[in-house]
Amino acid sequence: MRESSYPLVSVEDALAGVLSRVAPMQVRELPLQEALGLVLAEDVHAALDLPSFRAAVVDGFALRAADGSAARRLVGEQMAGAPLDLDVDAGTAVRITTGAPVPPGADVVIKVELSDEESGWVTPHQGETLMAGQNIRPVGSDIAAGELVLRAGQMLGPAELGMLASLGRSHAPVHRRPLVGVFSTGDELADFGQVLGPGQIYDSNRATLLAAVAQAGGQPLDLGILRDQPGELERGLARGLAQADVLVTSGGVSMGELDLLKPLLERWGAVHFGRVRMKPGKPLTFATLPARGADGEIAAGQPARPVFALPGNPVSSLVTFQLFVRPAIRRMLGIGHAGLPFLEVTLGHSFRLDPERAEFHRVTLTREDGQIVARSTGSQASSRLLSAAGADGLLVLEQADGLLPAGSRRPVLLLNDNWLATPEDDRSG
Ligand code: AMP
Ligand code: MG
Known about the structure:
It is a single chain. The protein is of the alpha/beta class and about 425 residues long. It contains 7 helices and 28 strands. Bound molecules: adenosine monophosphate and magnesium ion. Magnesium ion binds near residues 185, 186, 251, 252 and 312.
């Protein structure tokens, strides 16, 4: 057996090495609907007061508090969106709808159901006290002009996009989505739709990784399958370095005769680590390579491209993606803390620890008696994608001897948010 020349690095050191070598993408002004899930690159201050006029909070009548409980003569209607052309003088009132500007002179809006209207006169119900300012949103009461409303580094979700729209902005300055090229390597791989030859398997990693890229916020780019031949790998790699901001490959980084990727990455750039003390995923390799032009030649002046060469075993490639590529994509998106969503959970049964490597065990999560309980998805063989299909998270088990008893608390890296619903929640739908 051949021995790898790469030192085994810890998961923490490997992740720090990755994050120190990726940077937020360039800033673009994008239309709001294209900015969902992207990260603001600049602070946003309100360019106007919200509301920018005194606005009625209810449907009713705008009138003067000082007129007390007396009947008021109705002088007109003020609808939302209509220009202000009425005044409320002493002894008068204006019918008004929610969101309409309150006419000058009025200092209170009374709800329609707390008043009586008859033949052009409106009277507050007996005992209703009117206080100046009631049911009126003053100018700038939601947001004052100049106020800081969103900060650089904030991810834009529906509420943030709506916030920008309410200030009249059609575009947002965001870090652009990284284009993540994905290719598989291996002579045994067949593409979907092909008939399997002897010894062939379908390429599942590309489907997994392209989807994982999209889920992590990257823009996936399918670069196909490359055979285990030096020329083909070189051509494919050059193409990826010309097209994508980041490359994610799978296979070809173990110790076999045809594991040609690591030496190629060495020749073309810098390999920062080639083995990680983790299970699964030990052969994970991370390199940075100079960008290339469409002609395949090195493109000067462009930032180096991060290349993640993931192990070929389907589970290993998914787990290493989650632990290393996902945070890198988050950093490229401009998220300040590129950290991942970990949650402390309770073990539903005992787990055997590995004395040589930290383990990332695929688990399901359920809510039981106010606790979130993790259970293994079964055989954790790194070829068995079924251990990841249906998993809610990766349970982080430290490198140690022995057995971790049921009831212990450990962190889980969340893979989805399906577990948030309990079976009871489903019935109410
Ligand atoms: P390798 O790292 O290339 O030695 O691959 C390790 C194992 O993962 C082998 O059993 C491969 O057949 C399998 N494998 C590699 N690439 C893929 C892929 N794209 N889809 C499914 N299995 C793969
Ligand atoms: Mg291979």
